[in-house]
């Protein structure tokens, strides 16, 4: 069985559906995931539904964010009911209180499953490529010692999250890292049915 154009469009719609997060449309955001879906990004690790609730709390804070999403590159299982996609994204963040922002370039690595004819995300992880600060109202002071505690690829994003009250508790995958290799290898083993999750 091969993937149809509709399968590819459905998965693309899931990726661009991330706009629901930016628009605070929490019920629609929840619909992108299977009920047992999980997500791991800089400031959150856990179930996708818990992530939606945490995103609503973030949305009520001084931290604003926007995501620019490209078309995904998807690979399908032999039976056409599973897929792994990789999607470029740009995370644009700004803390309006301290007038500090960032742009962070990342890639989402998603495991997707079609259940009862409907595609949804089962697992989302992020790989961080590079990023930089933005200064909406002029340059503000950065604590360089704190900044140095994060990998350069997502240091600006992690710093902004931390000063906004959303701590980054561990190291995440960066471009070309061993963590990226493991994420991709595990995803494609799952795609081939070699592992359950």
**Which structural class matches the secondary elements?**
alpha+beta
**Quick one: overall form?**
globular
Q: Mean pLDDT, as a whole number?
A: 96
Considering DSSP H and I runs of 4 or more, what fraction of the residues is helical?
25-40%
Binned strand content: 35-45%
Which H/E pattern describes the elements? HHHEEHEEEEEHHH
Specify Rg, calculated over alpha carbons. Answer: 17 Å
- Our measurement of the CA-to-CA distance between the termini, rounded to an integer number of angstroms, reads 22 Å
User: What ranges have pLDDT less than 50 throughout 5 or more consecutive residues?
Assistant: none
DSSP summary: helix tally? 7
Number of distinct beta strands: 7
What does this structure look like?
The structure is a single chain. With 197 residues, this protein is an alpha+beta fold. It starts with a helix and ends in a 6-residue tail after the last helix. A hairpin with a 5-residue loop joins strand 4 and strand 5. The mean pLDDT is 96. Strands 1, 2, 3, 4, 5, 6 and 7 form a 7-stranded mixed sheet that branches. The chain has 7 helices and 7 strands; from the N terminus they run αααββαβββββααα. The protein is globular and about 55 Å long. 30% of the residues lie in helices and 36% in strands.
